[in-house]
Every structure is written in structure tokens, then in C-alpha cells.
């Protein structure tokens, strides 16, 4: 079994769900769900409107509590999990009131604060992480603008930069390309596939894009529960589990693509 720097076995469960059931008032949404996402998996979650996809992601990131069953993150029950900086989460439909006063830079930096740490001070190292994340998403030129004044697609890039700022091990994305044009969607999918294949990053992504799911994760779901379908691909490319500096590497990818004049299709113009 491969080992990472900290000596943990690779292919460990990053997310595990055991007998997870959830209801809103009288409406049962998820029943007895068992599933696991292992290190370096890319899991695509598909389901019709109202199937419970967002509800499941919100339980995984601790925003909703299951009625019964256990959810673990990196082996810890969610209720005891504290290492939220290891997880980048981009919720569905992030849209800001145009009057909201935060700048793009402030929104990206807020990804560093973590839960219950709203007012930590920002040091030089944090500023560099922020610049790297802005650069990776090709939004340096938007850094001083108010988030509420951006288009939906530009805002989505900001939220992705916010999710990337901590160099996360796990990215949880809830329909990340909604409202983004087709060409830019292709660039985005290219980028996250690169992150999956060349970095030690695990993905759980809700998407209605069956073409992307089938072409990358295969024709058949690996598990089904109610109306939820899980597709999965495991990345075998890395020969060891050493940590990768994601933003550094994304910068490299971007420079490489810039030199091939394909940057717009890869990491640029998600908005
Ligand atoms: N806060 C809430 N209170 C009550 N019911 C809710 C709440 N949020 C969602 N629901 C209901 O739970 C069900 C699952 O909703 P959820 O948002 O998880 O679905 P989804 O699979 O993400 O759908 P979509 O593809 O439309 O985003 C739906 O029937 C929805 O109406």
C-alpha cells in the first residue's frame, strides 16, 4: 500500500457514509445511504431535480445533520472534524447582492478563515496564497472589484479561487458550471481533470452534465441510492502520495497553456 508523508495509507476513505438517512420535516430525502470516497477518487453525483444531491453535500460539510447514520471525513465523524482547511467547498448558486461590500480579494481570503475563525489577521504568506489562487483562476484583474458587481461566471471563478486557497485535499463542488458558457465549461472540466490526474486531490462533484460524467467517469454508476447515482474514477497516475503544491502547479499549467495560446480554454474565462 502506498504511503504519504505523514505515513497514512493512501486510498484511505476521505468521505464515508454509513446508513445515512435524512428528512426535511415529513419528507424523506435520503434513506440508508452507504458510500465511500477514497483518496484520489473523482466521484460524480447525478440525480434529477430534488433527488437530494445538495442535501447530501450539505450533510458532508456539516451544515445539516443526518437523521441517522454516520458521516466521516478523513476518518473523523463530521461533528468532531476540525481540519476544514483540507476541504474546498463550492456551494450551488453563490450569488451576491450587488450592494455586498466585499472585494474579490476579500472573498478569496475568507477561504483561509475557516469555521469559527472569522477575524484572524492576514499575513504576508496569506497574501501570497491569495495571489496564487487569483492567478490560478485568471482573475487577478478582478481582485479589487466588488464581488456583487461581477457576472455569474466571474463570481463562480472567485468562489473556486476561494475553495483553492488552502491547497485542499478534497474539493466538493455543487454544480460548479451552472451559468457558465459551454466553451468555458470545457476549460473548467479540463482543469479539474488535470487537478485530479496530476495532484493528490479527491473530488466529489454534483453535475447535470452527463456528457462530462460519462466521458470521464464511465457509462455506468458504481452505486445508486433512491434517485442518486454515483460515478467514479480513481487516479492511478501519481506514483507516490507526496503533497503537491496545487496553486504552484496550476500556475505551471497555465503558463504551459498560455504558451500554446489555449489558456482561455483551460483556466481562463470561466466567467
Ligand atoms: N430547506 C429545505 N426545507 C424543506 N425541504 C427542502 C429544503 N431543501 C431542500 N428541500 C427538499 O428536499 C428535496 C431535495 O432537495 P435538494 O436541494 O437536495 O435536491 P437536489 O438533488 O440538489 O436538486 P437540484 O438538482 O434541483 O439542485 C427537494 O424535494 C427539496 O424540495
From TrEMBL:
Belongs to the ABC transporter superfamily. This is ABC transporter domain-containing protein. PANTHER family: METAL TRANSPORT SYSTEM ATP-BINDING PROTEIN TM_0124-RELATED. Keywords: ATP-binding, Nucleotide-binding, Transport. It comes from Paenibacillus radicis. Signal peptide: none annotated. Residues 15-250 form the ABC transporter domain. The keyword Lipid biosynthesis does not apply.
